[in-house]
Design a protein that fits this description.
The protein is of the alpha+beta class. The chain is 34% helix and 21% strand. The protein is built from 4 helices and 3 strands; from the N terminus they run E-E-H-H-E-H-H. The protein starts with 11 loop residues before the first strand and ends in an 8-residue tail after the last helix.
Length: 99
């Protein structure tokens, strides 16, 4: 844990959604169930991309140590081709490039 963090806070997650039009969406959150409800329009706050492509479902989700790491994984996933994104459900997160 980093200084000043609450050990009871949920971990950051990077997640991959499949939209109704079979496109993929990647994001980060601390509360995947709430975020999924937002993307599906049950709660306010879903992304405009998924708003027009409902319903959405979770394809893969991975816990990360902190927000920065989750966002770096999100950026790396967004660069992957579609098939590589879909294989994440079985293969895990891609390695992050060295800084």
């Amino acid at each position: 844990m980093t200084e000043g963090s609450d050990e009871h806070e949920p971990p950051w997650q990077v997640y991959l959604l499949r939209c109704a039009d079979d496109t993929l969406y990647t994001g980060v959150t601390r509360d995947l169930q709430r975020r999924l409800r937002q993307h599906n329009g049950e709660l306010v706050g879903g992304a405009s991309y998924t708003r027009a492509r409902r319903p959405v479902e979770v394809v893969a989700a991975f816990a990360c140590d902190d927000r920065s790491t989750a966002q770096r994984h999100e950026a790396a996933i967004k660069k992957l081709p579609r098939q590589a994104k879909l294989s994440l459900a079985t293969s895990g997160l891609p390695a992050l490039p060295a800084d």
